[in-house]
Design brief:
The chain is α+β, with helices and mostly antiparallel strands and 161 residues long. Helix content is 57%, strand content 12%. A hairpin with a 2-residue loop joins β2 and β3. The C terminus is likely disordered.
Length: 161
């Protein structure tokens, strides 16, 4: 068994690093309250329990990214790698965006820096997988569907079945 870093695409590298930053940012302060001289903060996980889904997906993305360069592949996934990464990073982005939009408490509750780091990391993690899909959709005739998750080496007859 050998480990070949050249098997990681640029999208995997970018998404992997951004997902690691997202994972760490879930524990950073997202919201803060200051009354007189007393302040308190809450992390993303303590403020929003549903962000544990993002935590689990981040661990999965990091695991898949870490195992991708291993030859021979230690596990065979039922989906194409790009489809799996697209799904996980989009779900992470949506969950972080919901957390960002749902907790603005006006003059009392403030957004803290960890929330901005998480949002930026989620955007960077999803872009390498969303941008090629958008390009593919824009280049295709309107009658055909995008092929994310479909092995392009399969004959056209098998895809339509």
């Amino acid at each position: 068994m050998k480990y070949g870093w050249n098997r990681l695409s640029m999208a995997d590298r970018i998404s992997g690093v951004a997902t690691l930053v997202l994972f760490i940012s879930l524990f950073l302060p997202w919201f803060g309250v200051t009354i007189l001289f007393v302040s308190a903060t809450a992390s993303g996980l303590s403020a929003h329990g549903y962000l544990y889904i993002a935590l689990i997906l981040s661990v999965a993305v990091l695991g898949v990214t870490a195992l991708r360069p291993v030859e021979p592949a230690p596990l065979k996934l039922p989906f194409r790698h790009e489809a799996l990464m697209l799904f996980a990073t989009v779900v992470n982005f949506v969950l972080v965006l919901i957390g960002f939009l749902s907790e603005r408490g006006g003059a009392i509750v403030d957004w803290e820096w960890g929330l901005y780091v998480a949002l930026a990391a989620a955007v960077v993690a999803v872009l390498p997988f969303v941008l090629p899909l958008i390009r593919e959709i824009r280049l295709q005739p309107s009658s055909s569907a995008p092929t994310v998750g479909v092995d392009k080496s399969e004959p056209e007859q098998r895809r339509s079945a």
